[in-house]
Amino acid sequence: MASSSPSGVELKDSETMSGAGAGVALSFPANDSPSPSSTSKLPRRLRRRLSESRCPSTAEEIEAKLKEADLRRQQFYEVLSNKARPKQRSLSRSSFQDVELGQRLEAKLNAAEQKRSSIIAEARMRLARLDEMRQAAKSGVEMRVEKQRGELVKKVESRVRQAEANRMLLLKLRRQRRAARKERTAQSLMRRTMQESKYKECVRAAIHQKRVAAERKRLALLEAERLKAQARLLQVQKAANSVHVQREMERIKKKHELEDRLQRARKQRIEFLRQRKGANCSPFAYDIVTHEQAENLARKLSWCWRQFMKSSG
C-alpha cells in the first residue's frame, strides 16, 4: 500500500505471506498535494513501519523489493478478484448487491493499480535520478580523490625533497661540527703541548737554577773544607815539623851519646888491651877474643841504630 504526505511520498510494503523479510522505504518529493486524511487511513502496521528508522538501500535492493511487492500485490488482487466474481446464485437482491460491490471493488483495484503504476514510474524515475546523482557523485569523488592523490603525491614529493635537503643540510652541519670539533681538539692539543713544553722549560730552568745553586753551595762547602783541610794540614805540618825537629834533635843527641859511648868503649877496650898485654896469653888467642868482642859490639851498635831509626822514622 502507498501513503503520501506534504513532505513527500512514502511507500511501505511487507511480506504478509511469509511474515519475514525487510520492508521497502521510498522517499519522493511532493509533486502533488493529496488530502491530509490519507495518513489517517493507513493501517497500524504500515504506520509502525513508517515510524521505524530507515537505512539507506542500493538501487538493486530497491528493484528486488519492488518486484517482490508487485508479486505480492498480484497475488492479493487475484484473491480479491476471486472473491469478487459472481457466483451461480439466484437473481435476488443479495446477488445484485454482490455484483455492485464487485464492480466497486474492481474500480478501486483499477484505481489502485493505476496509482501503483504511477508510483512505480515515479520511483523508477527517482531511482534513475539517484543513479545519475550517484554516478555523478562517484565521478566527482573519483576526480576529487584523484586530485587529492595528485596533490598528496606532490606534497609527498616536496616533503621528500625537503627532507633530502634537510638531510643534506644536517650532514653538512654535522661535517662542519665534526671539522670544528677536530679543529678545537687540535688547537687544545697544541695549546696543551705548548703549555707542557713551557712547563717543562720552567721545570728545567728551575732544576738548572737549583743545580747551579747546589753546585755553588757544594763548591763553597768544598772550598771551606779545603781551607779547613789546609789549615789542619798546616797545623799537622807544623806539628810534624816540630816533632821532626824534636826527633832530629833527639836522634842527634842519641847519636852523640852513642858516639860518646863508642869512644868510651874504644878507649876502655884499648885500656883493657893494654892492661892485659902483659898477661901470659898467646897473641893469637888475644886476637880472636878481641875480634869476637868487636863483632858483638858492632852487632849491638847496628841493632841499636836500627831501633833508633825505626823509632824516629
From TrEMBL:
Keywords: Coiled coil. InterPro entries: Tcp11. Residues 1-60 are annotated as: Disordered. It comes from the Eukaryota. Belongs to the TCP11 family. Transmembrane segments: none annotated. GO terms for biological process: signal transduction. It comes from Opuntia streptacantha. Residues 205-275 form a coiled coil. This is Uncharacterized protein.
